[in-house]
Design goal:
The complex is a heterotrimer of chains A (223), B (222) and C (161).
Chain A lengths: L2 H5 L4 E5 L2 E5 L1 H19 L5 E4 L6 E4 L3 H23 L3 H20 L4 H16 L1 H15 L4 H6 L4 H18 L6 H6 L7 H24 L1
Antiparallel strand pairs in A: 1-2, 3-4
Helix pairs in contact in A: 2-3, 2-10, 3-4, 3-10, 4-5, 4-6, 4-10, 5-8, 6-8, 8-10
Chain B lengths: L8 H27 L3 H20 L4 H33 L21 H15 L1 H21 L10 H21 L4 H26 L1 H5 L2
Helix pairs in contact in B: 1-2, 2-3, 4-5, 5-7, 6-7
Chain C lengths: L2 H8 L5 H16 L19 H4 L28 H9 L3 H9 L15 H8 L1 H26 L8
Helix pairs in contact in C: 4-6, 6-7
The chains are: A mainly alpha (223), B mainly alpha (222), C mainly alpha (161).
């Protein structure tokens, strides 16, 4: 499929050696949306969860400490930038690395919590992220072997065969695991149960944008 | 023949066996994960899955594939680093017990620590600087670690710089600047080459220093 | 087992990695039925194994032609307009590396690394953005692991809560 038919007219490219980023209206919009949200997160403070305690009238406040707050903010900003980068990249392997980066950083954002349940969910999510590197990188390598290129400009011209289809499906499984969409959502849903919004929200936002971009890329490769 | 126009026949004929090996290795690892109950075993088994990924990537057999193996390996390594730390943190919170970086106390009962460690570490650092790049950083960092450990073994005071991790970060930025310079002005390729190589040396060497900071509690332990 | 029961099973985070592993493993078995063949028109091709060694090349297996600072090496890059500049890096060797190459027939297979001249470097540059990301991933996990270690797992005795 032509690159322009999904995202709109090609507005320009950013060549970085053999990796070329490209801009179309859709990608530019997603890029700016993610960066805006990242900026809003960078200047905001964390929420404080209030738990009502049973049997008396006291409230239990769950606050995020300063050191934890700083570490989380840093990782949330990196996560935002990585998501934004994945929106405009024009290289398959580059996109895979962006997905892997958001995966690691997502684990990192919740890693500093003290609730055992949340730590457990983060660990389980991390296991999926590690396993997902096989379908992600393997899928990319199979597509490379079948077509001899990683650039979307070249991949768009290539007619699909069963090997490309298999590689793309593998890639989709990898993205699904790494971003934690259904049916693998339970670990990520569990990770939200900790104080620390809005930093926690970027985990959710990054998966949403990543999956949209991944589907667009797969359409470009297959059709 | 320096560079062939097409991929040589041997790579094409080996592709099928290689990729099947990758799939079978991956399948064995994944089934192991699916039936295993213990968290730590699952974590170790994910390494086999990572190995399968390297086989599938390496099967392509071009210079590009060789370059793609490195990110794959690093991603796998990086994730296991972060996730094992989370597992330790979780188990410590669950059980309320603490653990240290190494299960047994350090024993510096080696001859190399008392004979000529300063000369050896100087040699390592010098050789590391000559090498530059990743390998150089590791060798030079090893020299720094040897120096610190030998001072500890001889009972001399050790100056621990807490911010040594920051040097790593700054060197990393230097390296990135080298790269970006290459993208923007390819004519300055020699300068960017050296910026990147030296930034990498500093980065890896100081990362070794960071390991030293992480082990500071081990230094105190008897 | 009803569908509702299955959904309930999916809601338990402990089971998710196992289910993911099972689905992926089964899919890999499906892969054994798919016809695979390597497209021989690849970018950055390399000579057959041992070919350069048997020719007695001093920097085998990483000889890609060119002269230091004079002529670019041969590089089949994705975007041919960059090939020349990339080839210059490919053919570059530091003076020390050059001397070793002149004196030893085994430079390519030894672990003397040098800025430029060997295959790693050229691909670092052409696919430099990948390398930046890769090192960022490593950096972030170092940040996560060392932060956790410094704040929780190692200083837990001093933690006051």
């Amino acid at each position: 499929m032509d690159l322009g038919s999904l995202g709109g007219d090609l507005m320009g490219i950013v060549p970085l050696g053999d990796i070329v980023l490209y801009l179309t209206p859709l990608h530019l919009f997603m890029f700016i949306a993610v960066l805006t949200f990242t900026f809003l997160i960078a200047i905001s403070r964390t929420e404080t969860q209030v738990e009502a305690s049973f049997g008396d009238l006291k409230d239990n406040e769950l606050k995020v400490g300063l050191a934890e707050f700083k570490a989380r903010r840093f990782l949330a900003i990196i996560c935002g930038i990585a998501t934004a980068g994945a929106m405009i990249t024009g290289d398959l392997f580059n996109f895979i690395l962006f997905v892997a980066l958001t995966g690691v950083v997502n684990v990192g954002i919740v890693s500093a919590v003290k609730q055992i349940d949340v730590l457990d969910a983060a660990f389980q999510y991390g296991l999926i992220a590690m396993m997902a590197s096989l379908p992600l990188f393997g899928g990319g390598a199979i597509i490379l072997a079948a077509t001899g290129t990683l650039s979307f400009f070249e991949l768009a011209k290539f007619t699909s065969n069963s090997m490309v289809l298999f590689g793309s499906t593998l890639l989709l499984i990898g993205v699904a695991g790494e971003t934690g969409i259904a049916p693998f959502f339970a670990t990520k849903a569990e990770m939200f149960r900790t104080p620390g919004s809005p930093f926690i929200l970027i985990i959710h936002l990054s998966s949403l944008f990543m999956i949209i971009r991944a589907i667009e890329i797969l359409l470009v490769i297959i059709t | 023949m320096l560079v062939p126009e097409f991929v040589p026949q041997i790579f094409c004929s080996l592709y099928l066996p290689a990729i099947y090996t990758g799939f079978i290795v991956g399948f064995v690892g994944l089934v192991g994960i699916a039936i295993n109950k213990s968290d730590i075993h699952v974590l170790i088994l994910t390494d086999i899955v990572g190995l399968a990924m390297l086989i599938v990537v390496g099967a392509v057999g071009t210079d590009l594939a060789e370059a793609l193996i490195l990110p794959g390996l690093v991603v796998e390594l990086a994730e296991i680093l972060a996730i094992s730390e989370i597992l330790i943190s979780r188990e410590m919170r669950k059980k309320g017990k603490s653990s240290s970086l190494l299960p047994t106390p350090y024993v510096f009962d080696m001859e190399v620590m008392t004979t000529a460690p300063n000369f050896l570490s100087l040699l390592l650092i010098g050789y590391g600087i000559f090498l530059t790049g990743f390998t150089g950083g590791v060798v030079a960092g090893g020299g720094i670690l040897l120096y610190v450990l030998s001072r500890k073994a001889k009972g001399l005071p050790i100056v621990l710089i807490d911010g040594i991790g920051a040097i790593s970060g700054i060197a990393w930025c230097l390296w990135i600047v080298g790269f970006l310079l290459f993208f923007i002005t390819p004519d300055l390729w020699l300068l960017s080459l050296f910026l990147a190589a030296c930034g990498l040396l500093l980065k890896v060497a100081s990362k070794m220093g960071l390991i030293g900071t992480l082990m500071r509690e081990e230094f105190k332990r008897e | 087992m009803g569908l509702g029961e299955f959904w309930n099973k999916l809601a338990n985070p402990d089971r998710i990695p196992r289910i993911f592993a099972l689905i992926l493993g089964l899919f890999l078995v499906v892969g054994l039925l798919v016809p695979f063949s390597l497209n021989d028109d690849q970018i950055y091709p390399r000579p057959a194994p041992q070919e350069q060694m048997l020719d007695g090349d001093r920097i085998a297996p990483y000889d890609r032609g060119g002269e230091i600072l004079q002529k670019p090496g041969i590089t089949v890059a994705q975007y041919p307009c960059f090939s020349e500049k990339i080839g210059m890096i490919n053919s570059y060797m530091s003076p020390i590396a050059y001397n070793i190459k002149e004196n030893s027939p085994y430079f390519g297979t030894s672990i003397y690394s040098s800025p430029g001249g060997l295959i790693d470097e050229i691909l670092y540059y052409t696919r430099g953005f990948d390398t930046i990301l890769e090192s960022t991933i490593l950096m972030m996990s170092f940040v996560i692991a060392s932060w956790l270690a410094l704040n929780f797992t190692m200083n837990r005795k001093e933690e006051d809560d």
